[in-house]
Structures are given as structure tokens and as C-alpha cells.
Automatic annotation (TrEMBL):
The keyword ATP-binding does not apply. SUPFAM superfamilies: Periplasmic binding protein-like II, Winged helix' DNA-binding domain. PROSITE patterns: HTH_LYSR. Residues 7-64 form the HTH lysR-type domain. This is LysR family transcriptional regulator. Keywords: DNA-binding, Transcription, Transcription regulation. It holds the Pfam family LysR_substrate. The lineage of its organism: Bacteria, Pseudomonadati, Pseudomonadota, Betaproteobacteria, Burkholderiales. Belongs to the LysR transcriptional regulatory family.
């Protein structure tokens, strides 16, 4: 058996049109060609692929088993080419091909989803690469040009290479499981007492934050690189620690976690900054994303996320 040949994009699109339009005559009208040309194109495609795609024994041509399998491939190829052409038009018009974004793990997911959905609607041809990191890793990825834009909290270093814009804050609150010793206390919990119990602390492997602590009170602490793991350990009663309010709201309502009234302050405002390199001019899509974050973050965060 001979190897299948290489079909043309036009042949594939004629094949798709015949199926979608419901026959050769309808496809001919849709494509502004004669019916004989449509029929000839399909016959050539079948000859190229060495399979019969359509059963012509009925009034309306129907797909053979081979035709059903290859129609999906034809659609995929056609869509890929259409996407490539759309991206080429965008690039020719000065639109970047990709925007990379790194977001602090403390940042509310609901707010991030709202912004990214709007971005995809506005720039369907621009690939968006997203990373979620902790603490100094956000700044480090922007400094190293791995990501164009950062939405970060703590700025571990001051550097002229980074442009930053304060854009609100995330409410952090100390919590523990109801079974935890600190949750059993009434009234304000002295800082000296909180220090005696294991604190669960979020950390990262960034060199920028090496040796630095953020909101650490306890003498004994567990350093965790994953906020989800910290959340589960808190609910299991294995320690106490501060969490974004948006992430523990349901736990507080259901009683799975209890808010701790610490003498050192029971609410911490974790600052949110938009950052990018000052020596790297954002492209059109990246600037839109920066503007969207800058214009909407304070309002969204104030809504209690």
C-alpha cells in the first residue's frame, strides 16, 4: 500500500465545508465555486489520503468511518492555521506574542481570575504564561526577566531596576483549629504565649529572602513552601499561622478554623505591588494588563477578597 500524500489546506477546507453545509451543492454555493470543482477537490483529497472519505450512494453524502476520523484532524489543522494567521496579523500590528505574569501566592484567586478572563477576551492571540510564587520569588523572576509583570507582596530588596506601584493590600489574619490550645483561650492572647506554640510560616527558596522573616513570632516554626499545605495543617490543628482572609472565610464561617485575637495584632495588611523592570518597556498587551490591575485592584481588594 502506498503512503498517503500531502493534502492541501484548500482540500481540507472543502472537505469541512461539504460536511458543514450538508452536501456538494451547498458547499459550492458557500465557497462560490461550481459543484463539479467541489466534487473534483474531494476526489483528489481521497486520492491523496488513499481512503474513501464520503459515501456517495445516498442523496446526501455521508462520512465513512475513515471520513469521521479524518474530519477531526482536518478541523484541527484548519483551526491551527487560522490561529497562526490571526497571530501574524497581531504581530504585524505591533502586538507581542506572549506576556508572562508572576503572582504572589497570597493574592486572591477570584481577583486573578477576573482580570485574566478580561485579558483573554481582549487579546485572544496573545499567549499568557502564568506563575504563582511566594515572597521574594516574585521579584526575582521579574529581575531575571523571566516574567514581564509581577503582582507581589513583600519587596525584599530596593533596586532601581524595578518599577513598582502600590495597588492595595490583602487582609491576613491569624487562625488555628478549634482544638488548638490557643483557640481555647478567651480574650487577647499575649505575644509571649503565642511564641510558645508552633507557628506555620510560608517561605520560599528565593535568594532575595534568604534569612528574612515576615510576621514570624514563634520560637518554633514550620517553614512551608506551599500555601495549600499550610492551610491543611492549620485545619488539622498542627499549629497556628496567618492566612489570607479570602482563603479561610468559609473555614471561619463553618467553625473549622478560629480567628485568634493576638496582642501583637490580629489582622495584618499584606501589601500588593505591581512590578516590572524599568529598563524594559511593556508591550501593548502587557501595558493593558498593568493598567487593568492598577485600575481595578484597589476596588476589588476592598470588596473583601
Amino acid at each position: 500500500m502506498r503512503e498517503p500524500g500531502l493534502p492541501s489546506l484548500d482540500q481540507l477546507r472543502v472537505f469541512i465545508a461539504v460536511i458543514d453545509a450538508g452536501g456538494f451543492a451547498h458547499a459550492a454555493r458557500q465557497l462560490h465555486r461550481t459543484q463539479s470543482v467541489i466534487s473534483y477537490t474531494i476526489a483528489n483529497l481521497e486520492e491523496q489520503l488513499n481512503v474513501v472519505l464520503l459515501d456517495r450512494g445516498k442523496r446526501k453524502p455521508t462520512l465513512t468511518e475513515a471520513g469521521k476520523a479524518l474530519l477531526a484532524d482536518a478541523r484541527a489543522v484548519s483551526l491551527k492555521v487560522d490561529g497562526m494567521r490571526a497571530r501574524a496579523r497581531a504581530l504585524a500590528g505591533g502586538l507581542e506574542a506572549e506576556v508572562s505574569l508572576v503572582v504572589d501566592v497570597m493574592f486572591p484567586t477570584s481577583v486573578l481570575v477576573e482580570v485574566l478572563e478580561a485579558f483573554q477576551l481582549e487579546f485572544p492571540t496573545v499567549a499568557l504564561r502564568l506563575r504563582v510564587e511566594a515572597l521574594g520569588a516574585v521579584t526575582q523572576l521579574v529581575l531575571e526577566r523571566v516574567c514581564h509583570i509581577g503582582v507581589g507582596g513583600w519587596m525584599p530588596v530596593a533596586t532601581d531596576a524595578i518599577e513598582r506601584l502600590a495597588s492595595g493590600h490583602v487582609r491576613m489574619m491569624p487562625v488555628a483549629a478549634p482544638c488548638h490550645a490557643l483557640a481555647q483561650l478567651r480574650g487577647t492572647i499575649p505575644t509571649s504565649l503565642a511564641r510558645e506554640h508552633t507557628q506555620l510560616v510560608l517561605t520560599d527558596r528565593s535568594a532575595l529572602t534568604e534569612g528574612q522573616d515576615f510576621g514570624v513570632l514563634a520560637l518554633r516554626n514550620w517553614r512551608l513552601g506551599d500555601l495549600g499545605a499550610k492551610h491543611e495543617l492549620l485545619r488539622a490543628g498542627l499549629g497556628w499561622g496567618s492566612m489570607p482572609e479570602s482563603m479561610v472565610r468559609e473555614d471561619l464561617a463553618s467553625g473549622r478554623l478560629v480567628r485568634l485575637d493576638l496582642g501583637d495584632g490580629d489582622v495584618m495588611h499584606y501589601p500588593v505591588h505591581l512590578i516590572h523592570r524599568g529598563d524594559q518597556q511593556p508591550g501593548h498587551a502587557a501595558q493593558w494588563l498593568l493598567d487593568r490591575f492598577a485600575g481595578h485592584l484597589p476596588h476589588l481588594l476592598e470588596r473583601g477578597f
